[in-house]
Design goal:
The chain is built from 10 helices and 10 strands. By secondary structure, it is α/β, with parallel strands linked by helices. The strands form 2 sheets. It has a 7-stranded parallel beta sheet with strand order 6-5-4-7-8-9-10, with helices on both faces. A 3-stranded parallel beta sheet has the order 1-2-3, with helices on one face. Bound molecules: NADP nicotinamide-adenine-dinucleotide phosphate. NADP nicotinamide-adenine-dinucleotide phosphate binds next to α6 and β5.
């Protein structure tokens, strides 16, 4: 059962028709709710479980698990977030764009251009710039691989220990301070959980070297926007590229809009691509049918 908006649902319907004609596919409603085994949606309503009593899995088209977990659905229903090549590629592009923009002082030059001010700054080679990636999952590791060819000094941070060739990796609270201290540019690709709520705050910014920069592509509530503005205004942090904020849309009067050190985008870093997402759901249904864990299965205990 597909509960996506009509244009999305159409793409899913045609992809299912082409790649999985054996799977009965319904949009918006089913004449027999008891027969519905899999639901495709964006943000699931808690009432879904009462309506569709035999559902085995709910597939969200969102990459984050937070909305799935917040729906508080019964434990017997597998919650599956979206992992698909279209979304991964878009995040790779955005994170590289944002990192390069901060590396090459784009916020400074955009602000000076508006003032008709010719204000050169000597560029620093990428080999002298340290980039730390917070979150080494599907997206974080893709971004690390995409940044490698530029020659940045890379580092990473995750919950469990990771081994990535030529990239020092850290974990735990102490590890976070180490990564922050050795990152001229910090890229956040963490899921939103109680542990990562407001993780991008004054304590973390203090650990970063003077002139540090931030790319925030995780989830809005991870960032303490007041702390970021204070760090930027004090000159300790130099600039930021922010794709996710709280709330979204950002209120018109919010100071982030016009801060000269900030490039703000409206949560567009990455979006699910219809066809590849539908193919990923089909693949996952086949996995569930074969008693294999679906890709993107949410661990309710970990919260992502
Ligand atoms: P993922 O594969 O689940 O990876 C999450 C990573 O974060 C893992 O490495 C995990 O550590 C680490 N992590 C989680 N909690 C942590 C903690 N408390 N301390 C340290 N590390 C922690 O997720 P993903 O697919 O890469 O996506 C990451 C996030 O990107 C999503 O949850 C979503 O919020 C965001 N996103 C944003 C956009 C956008 O358009 N802005 C689009 C897509 C996704 P372990 O490896 O040890 O488990």
């Amino acid at each position: 059962l597909c509960l996506l908006d009509p244009s999305r649902a159409e793409v899913f319907a045609s992809t299912f028709g082409r790649l999985a004609p054996d799977l009965p596919f319904r949009c918006f409603r089913s004449e027999d709710p008891a027969r519905v085994r899999y639901i495709i949606t964006r943000v699931p309503a808690p009432a879904l479980a009462q309506l569709y009593t035999n559902v085995d899995a709910i597939f969200s088209v969102m990459a984050g698990a937070d909305a799935l977990i917040n729906a508080e659905l019964p434990q017997r229903i597998a919650l599956v977030r979206m992992v698909e090549p279209g979304l991964i590629g878009m995040m790779r592009d955005y994170a590289v764009m944002a990192t390069l923009a901060l590396h090459r002082e784009l916020p400074h030059f955009l602000a000076r251009q508006r003032e008709r001010c010719w204000a050169p700054i000597s560029p620093v080679p990428a080999s002298e710039r340290r980039v730390g990636v917070l979150g080494l999952g599907v997206l974080g590791t893709t971004v690390i691989d995409a940044l490698r060819p530029f020659g940045f000094q890379l580092a990473g941070w995750s919950r469990s220990k990771k081994d990535i060739i030529n990239v020092p990796c850290y974990e735990g609270a102490d590890g976070l301070r180490v990564v922050a201290a050795r990152s001229d540019i910090l890229v956040c690709l963490l899921p939103l959980t109680p542990e990562t709520h407001r993780i991008l705050g004054a304590d973390l910014f203090r650990c970063m070297p003077p002139g540090g920069r931030l790319v925030q592509v995780g989830r809005g509530p991870q960032l303490d926007e007041c702390a970021l503005l204070a760090a930027l205004d004090s000159g300790h942090l130099r600039a930021a590229v922010i794709d996710v904020v709280e709330p979204e849309p950002l209120p018109r009067e919010h100071p982030l809009w016009l801060h000269p050190g900030v490039i703000l985008t409206p949560h567009i870093a990455s979006q699910t691509r219809g066809e590849t997402a539908a193919a990923a759901v089909i693949d996952n249904i086949r996995r569930v049918q074969s008693n294999v864990a679906p890709i993107g299965l949410v661990d309710r205990q970990c919260g992502y």
